[in-house]
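Team,

Forwarding the record for the chain on the shared tracking sheet. I've put the sequence and predicted structure together so nobody has to dig through attachments.
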Amino acid sequence: MKHKSLTPSARQRWIQIKPARGRSLLGDFTAGRSEPAIYLVTIALIALIALISLISLISLCVGALLIVG
């Protein structure tokens, strides 16, 4: 008698739960493959911080020009 770790129904359920690689952030988190999602979130946060700092720098320069001019 063969011993299988997962019954066919459980295996089918697990295959349904596991998403295709890189389909969505939430899918990667729920499947336990959180590394790509963590990288994407980190890159998005860094880009957001860079964008905010760039906008604040531009507004600072515009303010200085308005004060000087």
